[in-house]
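for the writeup, i need someone to sanity check this before i put it in the appendix. the sequnce is what the collaborator sent (i think, or maybe the updated version? ugh). structure was predicted straight from it, no edits. if anything looks off just tell me and ill rerun, i have time this weekend
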Amino acid sequence: MTDSFDAGTRRGQRRRTLGLLFAAAVAAPFADLPLARAAGASREVRIGYQKYGTLTLLKGRGTLEKRLAEKNIAVKWTEFPAGPALLEGLNVGSIDFGTVGEAPPIFAQAAGANLVYVGNEPPSPDSEAIVVPKNSTLRSVTELKGKKVALNKGSNVHYLLVKALEKAGVDYRAIQTVYLPPAEARAAFERGAVDAWVIWDPFLAAAERQLGARVLADGKGLAANHQFYVAARPFAEQYGDVVRTVIDELAKVDEWGRTHQQEVATILAAQTGLPVDVVALAARRYAYGVRTVTPGVLAAQQKIADTFHSLKLIPKPIVVRDAQPPANLLAKE
């Protein structure tokens, strides 16, 4: 069946896209200067983040600002609702660095984005899931055939859905995919406009804690669910020292977070506006341990890219290693 969108959703998506393009146009004078000028004499690194993970924790801790201040570099943070929008911002030059799941950089690369992978977190397969309302009669992925399933197109959960359906013997085209960003997807889920929702933490944890959502399948055995750190290629090539500083501070926050779960929940709750019990559940499922990208991780990304191309979800085949880190950031296996 074809993808389902109502006219209002299409108009909303167009407005969001136009808004992002307008913001990019405002930032255009800085697009050719990988380190834009901040207020005063400082230079500025622009970081895109979402409501999850170590980058949000790093923002809350404030340690990166202190570290980069030694180099007279300020930090500008911009929140995005999901990975595809973040990478659109990266591609048009409004941010330099950000974090996304597995699928967004594949869709972005297929669209011609000039990005590079610069780091990743370990797999976190139980941090994403296909959920149904607590009173749903659906008990298995097999029963999704013919049903409406909400997800953010091109996000990390897209691959989870593909693999879960494949395991269940259900053709991807046999479901009705409803492409919605998290906030709109939750609203549709709550009012019963969709039968299932494929979503990641902390939105997953919020659905479980606040709505009683029931998990049909998570990523275990299906999708590794790496979180990637990506950068605009000109920025990574010209300012490798800044990228290494960001990754180093992420590693320190990861190490701290492993043994300070309550503090992590408190910081993330303040950063995301979500209740502490929700972010605590998400934080427990998160995999800490940032590292530089290896050829093996890129090979796993290639399998995802090939799957998406075979389903015509991306318009052309891509070579993931074309977006490998610059030589000074590439890890050896």
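The first helix runs from residue 7 to 27. Confidence is low (pLDDT under 50) at residues 1-33.
thx in advance!!
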